[in-house]
Amino acid sequence: MVIRNEDGTFQFAGRDDDIITTAGYRVGPTDVENSVMTHPAVAESAAVGQPDDIRGEVIKSYIVLRDGYEASDDLAEEIRQQVRERLSTHAFPRVIEFVDELPKTPSGKIQRFKLRAQAAQEATSDSQ
Fold first, then answer.
1. Which helix (DSSP H) or strand (DSSP E) does residue 111 occupy?
2. What is the mean pLDDT of the chain?
3. What burial letters (b/e) apply to 88-98, b meaning 16+ CB within 10 Å?
């Protein structure tokens, strides 16, 4: 998926099945992941869309922390605000889940489809 910017340049946004549509905006997960990765506590990051009744999807980040850091609501908010400042008010992770590891292929590529399925299942169970 490629996006044409207002100045006529093009930007790679990611695979069409990975694009997150939140409140009418299309957000590439790679932009979110790269912004999350700039925080010193973050070792790995993956972003997916989680179904949401109001926005269609919200951005959910799965984060593996570096040694010496502990998961907390304060750390999640710090990461969230950093991404919001770097990207925009619609492209930050509204939901952050700290995990021990991300699902990967044997070659090391993150399997976002598994995380999307997990996020969808969590959204369904939260709404019941």
1. none
2. 89
3. eeebbbbbbbb
Q: Please write the tens of the pLDDT for every residue from 52-93.
A: 999 999 999 999 999 999 999 999 999 999 999 998 888 999
For residues 40-68, one letter each, b for 16 or more C-beta atoms within 10 angstroms of the residue's C-beta and e for the rest, the string is: ebbebbbbbbbbbeebebbbbbbbebeee
User: Do the Cβ atoms of 42 and 23 come closer than 8 Å?
Assistant: no
- Residue 8, classified by CB atoms within 10 Å of its CB into exposed (0-12), middle (13-18) or buried (19+), is exposed
Instruction: Compute the chain's Rg from CA coordinates.
Output: 14
How many Å separate Cα 88 from the centre of its chain? 13
Sorted by where each starts, the structural domains of the chain and their CATH numbers stand as 2-127 (3.30.300.30)
